[in-house]
Design a protein that fits this description.
Helix content is 73%, strand content 4%. It is mostly helical. It starts with 9 loop residues before the first helix and ends with a helix.
Length: 216
């Protein structure tokens, strides 16, 4: 089966699908991924599957497993703390730059993503909320207008996705998370870069404590 031109390749589509499933907790830390099973599931040959898995290994989302297989990365509490320490700084910079460089398009994207968070939270739909939450953070990364910072921030979110997903268990968890976005968004929209930085730092600290508790 050949790959299409002019759009995402089979490899890119599979990579995106696996990233979403890992980030939303549908594929758990430590879970093994089998080339043949994925090829059959997604209706493609094993070559693009192998390429997608290799790309995710290079990003640290997957790690080599036994018998030449791969599995979703697992981290100790100490390793999670180190990852979140770095992620904490990158996210704060993103919030600060987004506030400084906010455009009408960026504002609209952030508003749309937050509306998605609120709707999913009200429905108690955890997978939908996780997707909307990722969209919100990606909209903030885009608002920085710095592709290098966006890339670093995105990689941290991908690595921590399955661990962050575990902190959402009830509709109340989702509603509390969606509401916690409002002060940050208000600071970004007011172009208060220092305020946005401070609130994002507070948000990330609270998120890290919840992740540790959920992954105990």
């Amino acid at each position: 089966m050949s790959e299409k031109t002019g759009g995402p390749s089979m490899t890119e589509r599979l990579e995106a699908a696996l990233v979403e499933e890992i980030a939303t907790g549908q594929i758990a830390p430590g879970e093994r991924l089998d080339e043949s099973v994925l090829a059959q599931r997604f209706g493609m040959s094993r070559t693009p599957v192998r390429e997608a898995l290799n790309r995710l290994v290079a990003q640290g989302i997957l790690v080599p497993g036994e018998k030449r297989g791969v599995r979703v990365a697992e981290y100790t509490h100490e390793e999670l703390a180190q990852i979140f320490e770095a992620m904490h700084e990158i996210e704060a910079v993103c919030a600060q730059l987004a506030a400084k460089r906010l455009s009408l398009l960026s504002r609209a994207r952030i508003e749309t993503a937050q509306a998605g968070c609120l709707a999913a939270a009200e429905q108690g739909d955890i997978p939908a909320y996780l997707r909307a939450n990722e969209a919100l953070h990606m909209a903030i990364y885009d608002a920085t207008e710095n592709p290098f910072i966006k890339q670093m921030a995105t990689e941290f979110r991908r690595r921590t996705g399955p661990f962050r997903a575990k902190k959402f268990r009830t509709k109340a968890d989702l509603i509390a998370s969606a509401q916690s976005h409002m002060p940050l968004i208000e600071k970004i929209f007011s172009t208060d870069s220092h305020g946005a930085d401070a609130i994002m730092r507070s948000h990330m600290t609270e998120s890290f404590l919840q992740v540790l508790a959920a992954n105990g």
